[in-house]
Write a structure and sequence with these properties.
Number of helices: 6
Order of helices and strands: EHHEEEEEEEEHEHEEHEEEH
CATH superfamily of the largest domain: Pseudouridine synthase I, catalytic domain, N-terminal subdomain
Structural class: alpha+beta
Largest sheet: 9 strands, mixed
Strand content: 25-35%
Bound molecules: uracil
Radius of gyration: 22 Å
CATH architecture of the largest domain: 2-Layer Sandwich
């Protein structure tokens, strides 16, 4: 049994005090009858509706954000804008956090959720879920460089990295490589390229698992992911 106001507010759209007002004005029904009070206790099977629209309760939320530069991957900060500040009010709820961090100057796909177990699942290197980045590099990559990533690089401080898959996607005026890693060490991609004497000039995460960033999202925009997309995150 759970309180009506708690159930509705957990979905992020209304605070508990707003739920109280909705109930008072007769806009909330439970199994077709006007709700008597905001603190009434309900079985999980109860059908709640607001203004006649059924409330579909979801346990967790999964949001895809196209992160711009200059925004930090934290939940709150006194001086800098965080990825959570970019989440629109209708998707906000308690306990949201970014599943994996991008540096302030890295752009692209950030998954924001309130599901800690799921975040752990997609971030743990043991599960081999690849994160794909496009890195604009100072210098052209050679086949010998790519081989080093395959073998597992050692970073400047001696940290060993697992195998990474690298391929060149643009060379000449601009040198752009795609890199896939399943780990998330501090500044990992930048440090990997630094360890072979190159330098990352721009970095963008374009994919998590088999789920690509929706390029129709402008920088700073976010949306909830679909069930089908959720499955692709785990591949
Ligand atoms: N690797 C980095 O160096 N920076 C990021 O933001 C993500 C991966």
């Amino acid at each position: 049994m759970e309180r009506l106001d708690k159930i509705i507010s957990s979905q992020g759209q209304y605070s508990r005090s707003e739920v109280k007002k909705l109930v008072k004005s007769g806009r909330v029904t439970v199994d077709g009858e006007a709700a008597k009070s905001a603190d009434m206790k309900l079985e999980a099977s109860a059908a709640i509706a607001i203004d006649g629209k059924e409330l579909i309760c979801k346990k967790h939320i999964y949001i895809m954000l196209n992160k711009p530069k200059g925004v930090i991957s934290a939940t709150e900060d006194r001086t800098q804008k965080t990825v959570l500040d970019l989440v629109p009010p209708e998707l906000r709820r308690r306990g949201l956090f970014p599943a994996g961090r991008l540096d302030g100057d890295t752009t692209g796909f950030v998954l924001i959720t309130d599901d800690g177990d799921f975040a752990h699942k997609i971030l743990s290197p043991k599960n081999h879920i690849m994160k794909t980045y496009h890195a604009t590099l100072r210098d052209e990559l050679t086949d010998a460089d790519i081989e080093k990533f395959k073998e597992g690089l050692t970073l400047g401080d001696g940290t060993e990295c697992m195998e990474a898959h690298v391929r060149v996607i643009e060379s000449g005026e601009r040198n752009v490589a795609e890199i896939k890693i399943c780990e998330g060490k501090y500044h990992q991609v930048k440090r990997m390229f630094a360890s072979i004497g190159n330098k990352v000039l721009e970095l963008r995460r374009v994919k998590m698992g088999e789920l690509e960033l929706d390029e129709s999202l402008a920088e700073g925009e976010s949306r909830e992911i679909t069930e089908d997309e959720f499955e692709r995150l785990l591949r």
